[in-house]
């Protein structure tokens, strides 16, 4: 896979990348949108780096939400498969983030994704370890003949490579079974089905590699017995894949995204061609001389017996091979059943461990709650003790304050007595001053009454003068008002004269118009009367003609009747 580098703004591309990550890992229980995951993959090919991608996954607030974390793992799986090779290498350094994903949802399993997340993280760890140990394989396990041949140059190394490849295939098988086991009829399984898409593609790619490498190993070692364990394991994986692909082919959503591979019912023959041995060829019969035909009969019978013998041998060989394949198939089914039982036992133990962990967690939470309650009560006791001590200190302060107030009260009483004595003396001196001011007031009152009388006389004189001035001013104002009114009346009269002239002209124009209209109507009436008279004359002539015609026809009928 290759993409051309597009000359776009790096900052803008990173901003869009963050939006694609956010939308691909939203909280809706649906599959990650392919266009958003594809945009992340294209980014790794455009810039040959996935650093910003991992930074985006780390900064998104998805941990703690089961659905978002599971969708993030699906997206990561697709990115390290289809992204630039640097994305696969840089993903090998993100093990801590994957572990954090597994831990973040350990205590939340409301929608059944917690177990899936932990197993998905384990599978991704195994995949990344395999690519780290075998860097010649790319993320998609695209089949390349030279890689399969290179892997078995050293038989021991080839055996180890095939074993690691089959271990990864077993993990895929276990995880897909867990996904199917977690389907819920009452909820939308689209998000869970989305995890099967890369598993189908990856398992088939591994299957093709394992097939090619095992065939090459058989050709190179010439020791089929040494590879019997690998063959048995390969056959078991073949039947497991058939079942896996059959179950996937029944999921409409999955088949709308990818084409599910179809494997033959029986495993391919790793030691030779897949087709059965050919039928024995029939040997040609030599022609006898024409004159003597009798000696040819024994040769022909011998040939028929030889052919029948070879046919029986072939049928026996076929029967033996069929029985051998049936035994191998039964062994493989038995081994597959054992693997299934082992997986179910592991799953049961895993569920039991999870239950014990949940119970332990509940006990620890209850213990922490009890310890927290005890600490809270101890804090309350300390707070009450501190409050009591503060209250005692406040009471002591109040006692000291009361004593101080009592002393201040005594001082105030003493000062009040002294002030009363001094005030008595002050009252006597004030009384003397009052008498002095009283005599002064009486003198001023006499002076005030005299001045008031003079003021009243002056006011009378002022009013008379004011009245005279007001009467003169009123006369002037009335004259100005009358002049203004006369001017307004003149203006109104001029307007009325203009209006009268305009009305007179309008009346004359209207009369002329009416006279013309009356004359026109008279002419129209005369013309109408003329037309009526003409019409009357024409109708009278027509009626006369019709009467004459009627009388004539009547006369004719009477003549005929007579």
Radius of gyration: 61 Å
Strand content: under 5%
Number of helices: 13
Principal-axes geometry comes out as: flat
Largest sheet properties: none
Helix content: over 70%
Average pLDDT over all residues: 81
Low-pLDDT stretches are 1-5, 273-298
What distance separates the N and C termini?
124 Å
* SSE pattern: HHHHHHHHHHHHH
- Class by SSE composition: mainly alpha
Number of strands: 0
Characterise this structure.
With 562 residues, the chain is mainly alpha-helical. The chain has a domain at 10-278 and 310-364. The protein is built from 13 helices and no strands. It has helices at residues 10-24, 34-47, 51-59, 66-82, 85-91, 95-104, 114-133, 145-150, 155-181, 190-221, 228-249, 252-255, 296-561. Helix 1 packs across helix 3 and helix 4 (66-82) runs parallel beside helix 10. It is flat. Residues 1-5 and 273-298 have low confidence and may be disordered.
């Amino acid at each position: 896979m290759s993409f051309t580098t597009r000359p776009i703004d790096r900052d803008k591309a990173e901003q869009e990348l963050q939006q694609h990550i956010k939308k691909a890992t939203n909280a809706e229980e649906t599959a990650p949108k392919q266009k958003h995951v594809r945009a992340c993959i294209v980014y790794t090919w455009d810039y040959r780096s996935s650093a910003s991608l991992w930074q985006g996954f780390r900064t998104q607030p998805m941990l703690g939400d089961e659905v978002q974390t599971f969708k993030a793992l699906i997206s990561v799986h697709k990115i390290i498969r289809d992204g630039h090779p640097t994305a696969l290498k840089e993903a090998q350094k993100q093990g801590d983030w994957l572990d954090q994903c597994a831990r973040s949802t350990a205590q939340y399993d409301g929608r059944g994704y917690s177990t899936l997340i932990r197993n998905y993280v384990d599978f991704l760890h195994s995949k990344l370890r395999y690519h780290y140990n075998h860097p010649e394989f790319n993320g998609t396990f695209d089949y390349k003949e030279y890689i399969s041949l290179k892997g078995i140059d050293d038989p021991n190394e080839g055996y180890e490579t095939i074993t690691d490849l089959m271990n990864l295939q077993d993990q895929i098988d276990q995880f897909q079974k867990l996904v199917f086991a977690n389907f819920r009829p009452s909820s939308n399984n689209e998000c869970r089905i989305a995890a099967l898409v890369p598993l189908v593609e990856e398992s088939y790619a591994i299957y093709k590699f394992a097939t090619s490498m095992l065939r090459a190993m058989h050709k190179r070692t010439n020791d089929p017995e040494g590879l019997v364990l690998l063959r048995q394991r390969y056959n078991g994986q073949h039947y497991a894949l058939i079942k896996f692909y059959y179950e996937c082919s029944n999921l409409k959503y999955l088949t709308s995204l990818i084409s599910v591979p179809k494997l033959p019912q029986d495993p391919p023959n790793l030691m030779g061609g897949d087709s059965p041995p050919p039928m024995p060829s029939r040997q040609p019969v030599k022609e006898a001389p024409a004159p003597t035909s009798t000696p040819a009969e024994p040769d022909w019978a011998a040939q028929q017996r030889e052919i029948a013998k070879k046919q029986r041998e072939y049928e026996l060989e076929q029967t033996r091979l069929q029985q051998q394949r049936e035994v191998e198939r039964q062994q493989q089914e038995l081994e597959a059943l054992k693997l299934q039982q082992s997986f179910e036992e592991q799953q049961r133990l895993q569920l039991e461990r999870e239950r014990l962990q949940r119970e332990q967690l509940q006990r620890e939470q209850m213990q922490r709650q009890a310890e927290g309650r005890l600490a809270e009560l101890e804090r309350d006791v300390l707070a009450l003790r501190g409050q009591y001590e503060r209250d005692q200190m406040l009471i002591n302060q109040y006692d000291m304050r009361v004593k101080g107030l009592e002393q201040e009260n005594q001082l105030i009483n003493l000062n009040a007595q002294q002030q009363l004595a001094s005030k008595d003396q002050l009252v006597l001196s004030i009384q003397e001053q009052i008498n002095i001011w009283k005599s002064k007031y009486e003198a001023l009152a006499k002076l005030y009454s005299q001045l008031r009388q003079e003021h009243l006389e002056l006011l009378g004189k002022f009013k008379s003068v004011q009245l005279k001035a007001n009467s003169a001013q009123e006369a002037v104002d009335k004259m100005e008002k009358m002049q203004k009114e006369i001017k307004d009346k003149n203006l109104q009269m001029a307007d009325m004269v203009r209006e009268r002239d305009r009305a007179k002209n309008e009346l004359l124009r209207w009369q002329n118009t009416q006279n013309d209209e009356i004359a026109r109507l008279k002419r129209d009436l005369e013309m109408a009367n003329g037309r009526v008279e003409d019409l009357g004359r024409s109708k009278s002539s027509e009626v006369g003609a019709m009467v004459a015609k009627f009388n004539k026809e009547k006369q004719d009928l009477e003549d005929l009747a007579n």
